[in-house]
Amino acid sequence: MSDVLPPTDDPEPGWSQSLATGAPGIALLHVELARCGLCEWSTVQHWAAATMRHEVSTHPSASLFRGAPAVAFALHAAERKAYAPALDVLDGQIRQIVQQRLATAHDRIDGQRPPALAEFDLISGLTGLGVYMLRRDRDHATLRGVLKYLVRLTDPLLSPDGLVPGWWTAHGPQDMPSPDWVGGHGNFGMAHGIAGPLALLSSAMRRGTTVAGQPEAIERVCSWLNTWRRGTAAQPWWPETISLGELRSGTSHARHPHRPSWCYGTPGIARAMQLAGLALADEHRRRSAEDALAAAIGDGLQLNRVTDASLCHGWAGLALTVWRVAADSHDPHRLTDRMPYLIGRLDRHLRDHPVRGHGLLEGAEGIHLAQHSITRTHLPLSRWDACLLLDG
């Protein structure tokens, strides 16, 4: 395991309230280690204090990875009474943010306008906010409001370009208008695409929280993903995105799978599909998802497209996703048998390319969390990877 030391200070701006790059993500590492008896709670407190050094952002754009929800996610993971008063305040603020964003989203759907990725995705949108609500209170009306919205999101949308999936955005993958994406795009990924809402709908259902139309919404998304699955029966994969032209022709221009990553690739999509199969007690769907992941990690050409160690799109995220899928599989050996190889590739990459930056998604702390988790005999005590929708 790599030797990861926390930064000795917490420079500003930008560190205080970002789960991806800042103090909440760094705190999350030390929460998990402290709960396992591997670091002092005083280190957790140092970073918890850093998250609240300035007024916590409750801007309407606050999300699971930025502002009040990011801070609250890290504090909740600690399960310490000392953080309860702060969490109570943050919960009230987060619910107001969610209600504002839900009202805006429903107005947008009523007007038959396409969403921005940041409206619904895991990193910036309502899916991420739903992750937090599911952790804090899975029976709260605010969570049910998010689930009802995600059900509506799966209904087809009559856009100026004709009928499109309800999550079809008018922007490019950077969530901005682009001449390269006239008519917008459909996004498949866990971080920014429809795999994220699918995983949340499925995870909530597995935990007994359902709203009207939820099973049908899960089925609709799975059907769409099945339609766009590429490759062969033995080597299936999904494109990262499709354009309007590809949607209309029913054919993706992608000729080979991209890197097998958590954020956009087959591993993240396979985990979402596996969770759907578990939620609906659909053995064929669960098995099919696991088959796709097993094929991806057995394909040297795909693995050679992984070029960094990060949690987001590198070896750490790939290994963690495989480990989580295996933990919910009835036939885990075809996945666990590959774990030593994946861990070896991660270790070799870190040896040859030491990670200098800090942060959860692309820095040392996320890599260390993944390494720590996949070498334990139990699931993470803090359930820290719920922020990646891997916890299930």
From TrEMBL:
<feature type="binding site">
    <location>
        <position position="312"/>
    </location>
    <ligand>
        <name>Zn(2+)</name>
    </ligand>
</feature>
<dbReference type="GO" id="GO:0046872">
    <property type="term" value="F:metal ion binding"/>
</dbReference>
<dbReference type="Pfam" id="PF05147">
    <property type="entry name" value="LANC_like"/>
</dbReference>
<keyword id="KW-0479">Metal-binding</keyword>
<feature type="binding site">
    <location>
        <position position="313"/>
    </location>
    <ligand>
        <name>Zn(2+)</name>
    </ligand>
</feature>
<feature type="binding site">
    <location>
        <position position="263"/>
    </location>
    <ligand>
        <name>Zn(2+)</name>
    </ligand>
</feature>
<dbReference type="GO" id="GO:0031179">
    <property type="term" value="P:peptide modification"/>
</dbReference>
<protein>
    <recommendedName>
        <fullName>Lanthionine synthetase</fullName>
    </recommendedName>
</protein>
<dbReference type="InterPro" id="IPR033889">
    <property type="entry name" value="LanC"/>
</dbReference>
<keyword id="KW-0862">Zinc</keyword>
<dbReference type="InterPro" id="IPR007822">
    <property type="entry name" value="LANC-like"/>
</dbReference>
